[in-house]
Design goal:
Elements (H helix, E strand, L loop, with lengths): L2 H47 L4 H13 L3 H14 L6 H26 L3 H9 L4 H31 L11 H12 L2 H35 L1
């Protein structure tokens, strides 16, 4: 192909790659991150409160997730479960596995942020007659999330990029769209560069949102 033909191919392919990005990659990222936050908060609180037995279960879960590749986890979550009769859709498997995977990493971020809150404020909460749950809800967690916000933004961007792996379990996201077009045209370099640029655009938007959120938090904290 000539340079002009390659450019024309990339222009025609742009929307064919972008649309799966908007309809599959973005929803997958948002759902996985939302569930990961829920998992992370629960597991971090269990560790922070040092709840017997549950703390050991949580540490085991984090150890397993952090010690195995996401791609292997995706294969277990989809093909592995299917082989023992548990039938779930590729998208559901992707959300489940990515939520559990990222939840383990985010959990450590949240736990570190919880421990960064002054113990004196917790003692003051008890002296005011607040229960542990109320102290967590009104005093500790708001401050912990403020501390963890930059790291959480990085986790969100990480999930966005990791969605490219779910094409391996037949989820038709934008990387699979690029693979299919490249397979028909044999223009692998051009198409893979194009999908990389689209990922970069999405990541840049998330980076801007992260900075905007940080500025807002700093503004309200200064007041």
């Amino acid at each position: 192909m000539s340079l002009e033909q390659i450019i024309e191919l990339m222009i025609k392919s742009f929307t064919k790659i972008l649309i799966p990005g908007l309809t599959m990659t973005v929803p997958l990222t948002i759902l996985s991150f939302t569930f990961a936050i829920i998992i992370a908060v629960l597991t971090a609180l269990i560790q922070y409160a040092k709840i017997p037995v549950l703390k050991q279960i949580v540490r085991f879960y984090i150890w397993i997730i952090r010690g195995t590749p996401l791609l292997v986890q995706l294969y277990i979550g989809y093909f592995g479960l299917s082989s023992i009769g548990v039938k779930i859709s590729p998208f559901t498997a992707a959300v489940l596995v990515m939520s559990l995977c990222e939840g383990a990493y985010v959990s450590e971020t949240i736990r570190g942020s919880l421990e960064g809150v002054s113990k004196g404020q917790i003692e003051a909460g008890y002296c005011s007659g607040l229960s542990f749950v109320q102290i967590m809800q009104h005093i500790v967690l708001p401050q912990a999330f403020r501390i963890a916000f930059p790291a959480l933004g990085n986790h969100l961007i990480s999930i966005l990029k990791e969605t490219s792996l779910v094409s391996n379990i037949t989820v038709a996201e934008m990387f699979m769209a690029a693979q299919r077009i490249a397979g028909r045209t044999y223009q692998y370099m051009a198409l893979y560069i194009e999908v990389a640029l689209i990922y970069l655009i999405f990541s840049t938007v998330l980076t801007w949102l992260q900075r905007w959120g940080e500025n807002k938090l700093n503004y309200y904290q200064a007041k």
